[in-house]
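ARCHIVE RECORD
Type: protein–small molecule complex
Small molecule: zinc ion
Source of inputs: curated submission
Record status: active
Notes field left blank by submitter.
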Amino acid sequence: MAQPKKKTTKSRKRMGQWKEKIDAPNLVECPHCHNLVLPHHVCPYCGYYDGKEVVAVEKSKKA
Ligand SMILES: [Zn+2]
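STRUCTURE (tokenized, with ligand):
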């Protein structure tokens, strides 16, 4: 079996994982206002989650 030539140190392993972590977060389209929002979060633009308005959003944002 092919083997790695050198042991991956904790430092190298963590640096690689850190790079993965800084990639852009997952975004899904809000079914109500079609903005990109974080999954499993109340939409910050329209305050909707799961088809219901759960948070009242300031009028200036609603337009
Ligand atoms: Zn929305």
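CURATOR ANNOTATION: The chain has a mean pLDDT of 84.
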